[in-house]
């Protein structure tokens, strides 16, 4: 028959291993909150971002641009204030000039009212001119002298005048008494023939119109090269 083992834990004498200290021993620590464990990572991340932004600002010139923009804003503000001051001064000056002009206008009106008006006859005589009182005489005697040496040129120009309505036109060559001018010219004897001479010059495209009392006809055209 087998022997029954009656020895149990209580049968042995207690030693140092049977009396361990209570609670955790050594480097063991309890569980910490999540925010406490995440905070160091957040601080490192923020510091890294700040350092990156600072580095980028320095090397890209953004900091300098910001400084320039602030300087420009300051200058703009100063110019705006100066412009406001100038506008006020201009308005004051314009107001003074307006008052002066109104005073001058009033003085002119007063002097104009005090001046006697001209009568209709005086006004009409002042407006009339010798050229307006003259009329073109298409029946005036006109001589066309050929000083160019081109045969038939005087007859051709005389025909142009006849086509324009002049009825007493003749062509001729210069004689011993004819003084040839330096350029083509239309001569007229009297002031009454001025309008007719001007019309002849316009018809022939001649620019020079002169008075001469030595010609033999009222109108004389001298054709030159």
TrEMBL record:
Record field: transmembrane: 38-59
Domain LytR/CpsA/Psr regulator C-terminal residues, every copy: 140-223
InterPro entries cross-referenced by the UniProt entry: LytR/CpsA/Psr_C (IPR027381), LytR/CpsA/Psr_CW_biosynth (IPR050922)
Region spans: Disordered: 1-30, 70-137
Biased composition (Basic and acidic residues): 1-17
Polar residues compositional bias, start-end: 112-137
Domain of life the protein comes from: Bacteria
Protein name: Cell wall integrity and stress response protein 1
Organism phylogeny: Bacteria, Bacillati, Actinomycetota, Actinomycetes, Bifidobacteriales
């Amino acid at each position: 028959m087998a022997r029954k083992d009656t020895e149990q834990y209580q049968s042995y004498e207690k030693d140092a291993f049977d009396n361990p200290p209570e609670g955790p021993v050594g480097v063991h620590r309890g569980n910490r909150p999540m925010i406490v464990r995440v905070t160091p990572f957040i601080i490192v991340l923020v510091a890294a971002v700040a350092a990156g932004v600072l580095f980028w600002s320095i090397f890209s010139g953004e900091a300098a641009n910001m400084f320039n923009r602030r300087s420009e804003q300051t200058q703009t503000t100063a110019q705006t204030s100066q412009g406001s001051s100038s506008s006020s001064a201009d308005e004051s000056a314009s107001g003074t000039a307006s008052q002066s002009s109104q005073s001058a206008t009033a003085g002119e009106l007063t002097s104009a009212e005090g001046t006697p008006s001209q009568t209709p006859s005086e006004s009409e005589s002042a407006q009339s001119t010798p050229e307006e009182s003259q009329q073109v005489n298409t029946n005036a005697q006109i001589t066309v002298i050929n000083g160019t040496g081109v045969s038939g040129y005087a007859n051709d120009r005389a025909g142009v005048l006849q086509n324009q309505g002049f009825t007493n036109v003749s062509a001729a060559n210069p004689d011993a008494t004819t003084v040839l001018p330096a350029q083509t010219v239309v001569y007229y004897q009297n002031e009454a023939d001025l309008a007719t001479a001007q019309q002849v010059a316009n018809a022939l495209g001649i620019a020079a119109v002169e008075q001469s009392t030595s010609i033999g006809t009222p109108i004389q055209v001298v054709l030159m090269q």
